[in-house]
Amino acid sequence: MNDVFITKAFTYLPNEPVSNDEMETYLGYINGAPSKAKAIILRNNKITTRYYALDKEGNPTHTNAQIAANAVKGLFDDKFRKEDMELLSVGTSSPDQIQPSHASMIHGELDMNKSLAINTASGLCNSGMNALNYGFLSVKAGVHKNAVCVGSERMSAWMTADKFNHEAENLALLEERPIIAFKREFLRWMLSDGAGAFLLEGQPREDEVSLKVEFIDFYSYAHEIEACMYAGTEKQEDGSLKSWADYPSDEWLKQSIFALKQDTKILDKYILVKGAESLRTSFDKHNLDPDTVDHVLAHVSSGYFKEGLKEEFANVGLDFPWEKWFYNLSEVGNIGAGSIFIALEQLMNSGRLKKGEKVLLCVPESGRFSYSCALLTVC
């Protein structure tokens, strides 16, 4: 089995950063009125800027595949040409279409004249880590000499007002208040667009920062907990999900069936506790001493969770001091499957890393509560 190294990383964020005050200029006003929940949600999530693949009229400027392809193109240089790529492994929770696969569409955007092995990981935030794991195992097993792994999102197109106006109109016809349910509106003020890409190879680069991938672990708690974040479906009273395919087509817009929704009640109950439980399991499995970790990159959807996450980790014997934590949520927003890629790229190219240091990655996914973690060594 081969050693595997992240030898280069690149981030692509579309257009200019969007401030809190500008958000509804891009996303629009549901039912023509400013959101009453927006200020509360932004105060808690502590995000100040984010990126949208939209112009100020709400028109798309990039597809998800184009955003991801731009991140991939940033990996090409005189040491790694486009023609050298053997595997493209990608993850997203917001593909541009149900089919073809996201990886197929990115490959098509790269203007290549060769075939590739491709892989698309589905899911939510952990789809990026699953894509990374596929590339890691492929290079480790010697199936491919290199792998390009990408986490990308274009959630802004899902959050424009026109996607919710039919539901608001339907509520008004029913003589109810035309206010979209909090579980639907909550995520409008959380999510951002962008992509991060890693190049994985069997050797580190000389005179450049490379990161050896020691392990990547995954944990699912779907056997214990019902779904928390979902789209293309609606949660029933018993906690089960009813698929969009089982609704009459005229209900898709009336109930915003395709909107991304989150059950915030069970989110608060489980997201941190299960994250700490899964990480403790990995530290025990690999017989790791938390004092040997130098940098902690934990993907959080909101600044609201930062203090609680540190506390829950400490409760299971993983008390990392604040100076070891690295966050960029407030500047780039929650980019779902791309967040951990973008945070690691920023740290990797910051000049802060020293040879021999250990970098811990932690990614939660509230879809039905799954988690991943990885340990990297600076070379």
TrEMBL record:
<keyword id="KW-0808">Transferase</keyword>
<protein>
    <recommendedName>
        <fullName>Beta-ketoacyl-[acyl-carrier-protein] synthase III C-terminal domain-containing protein</fullName>
    </recommendedName>
</protein>
<dbReference type="InterPro" id="IPR013747">
    <property type="entry name" value="ACP_syn_III_C"/>
</dbReference>
<dbReference type="GO" id="GO:0016746">
    <property type="term" value="F:acyltransferase activity"/>
</dbReference>
<dbReference type="GO" id="GO:0044550">
    <property type="term" value="P:secondary metabolite biosynthetic process"/>
</dbReference>
<dbReference type="Pfam" id="PF08541">
    <property type="entry name" value="ACP_syn_III_C"/>
</dbReference>
<feature type="domain" description="Beta-ketoacyl-[acyl-carrier-protein] synthase III C-terminal">
    <location>
        <begin position="284"/>
        <end position="375"/>
    </location>
</feature>
<dbReference type="InterPro" id="IPR016039">
    <property type="entry name" value="Thiolase-like"/>
</dbReference>
<keyword id="KW-0012">Acyltransferase</keyword>
